[in-house]
Write a structure and sequence with these properties.
CATH superfamily: Hotdog Thioesterase
Oligomer: single chain
Strand content: 35-45%
Strand order of the largest sheet: 5-8-7-6-4-3-1-10
Low-confidence stretches: none
Radius of gyration: 15 Å
CATH architecture: Roll
Largest sheet: 8 strands, antiparallel
Order of helices and strands: EEEEHEEEEHEE
C-alpha cells in the first residue's frame, strides 16, 4: 500500500543511528508518513557487519528501537522516551551496502507505551521485526544538564520522493 510522506523528522549530530556527524553511524533519515508511521532509510556499510555481507544483529535491534521510539514524536514532537523492553525477530539476513527501510508505529500511548516495527528491503521482503515497550521521560532526565537542543536539528537534506509503498 502506498503512503504519503508528510515531513522529515529531526536528526542528532552524534547518534549512532541518525547522527549526521558520526563517521561510524548509519546516518538514517527519518520521515513521518500519513498512516502515523515513521520511515527510516539507511544503508549499512562494511563496518556494520557481523558475518561478511550481513549486518550485525545489535545494529538491527538499534534501527528498530529508534524507528519505533520516534513514532511517539509524530503527534508530540517534544515528547521523549526510553526503551524498557525490545524483542527482535530476525527473519532473514540484513544485507550491507544496499538501501533498506525501517518502519515503526505505536499501539498505545501513555506513560508506558507499546510499539512495533520492521526492516525491509527494496523488494518489500521483511528481514527483521520488533515488538517493544517504552517509558516516557523528560529529555532533561535522559541527558541531564546537557543542552540537547543544539544537538537535535532539522534534517536539511532534500527528499527524493513524496510517496512510498509499504507492505503493512
Amino acid at each position: 500500500m502506498e503512503h504519503k510522506v508528510l515531513r522529515k523528522q529531526y536528526l542528532a549530530k552524534m547518534c549512532f543511528v541518525c547522527g549526521v556527524d558520526n563517521d561510524s553511524g548509519l546516518k538514517t533519515k527519518y520521515y513521518v508518513l500519513e498512516n502515523k508511521r515513521v520511515l527510516g532509510i539507511f544503508q549499512g556499510q562494511d563496518i556494520h557487519q557481523s558475518y561478511p555481507t550481513r549486518m550485525h544483529g545489535g545494529i538491527i535491534a538499534a534501527l528498530l528501537d529508534e524507528a519505533i521510539g520516534r513514532a511517539l514524536q509524530i503527534d508530540e514532537p517534544e515528547a521523549w522516551a526510553v526503551t524498557i523492553e525490545l524483542n527482535v525477530k530476525y527473519h532473514k539476513p540484513v544485507p550491507l551496502n544496499q538501501t533498506l527501510y525501517v518502519v515503526g508505529w505505536l499501539h498505545s500511548n501513555g506513560k508506558i507505551f507499546d510499539g512495533e516495527g520492521y526492516i525491509m528491503d527494496e523488494d518489500h521482503v521483511i528481514l527483521a521485526s520488533s515488538k517493544s515497550k517504552y517509558m516516557r521521560q523528560s529529555v532533561q532526565k535522559i541527558v541531564g544538564n546537557m543542552d540537547f537542543e543544539k544537538d537535535w536539528q532539522p534534517d536539511s537534506a532534500s527528499t527524493d520522493f513524496e510517496r512510498i509503498d509499504l507492505p503493512k
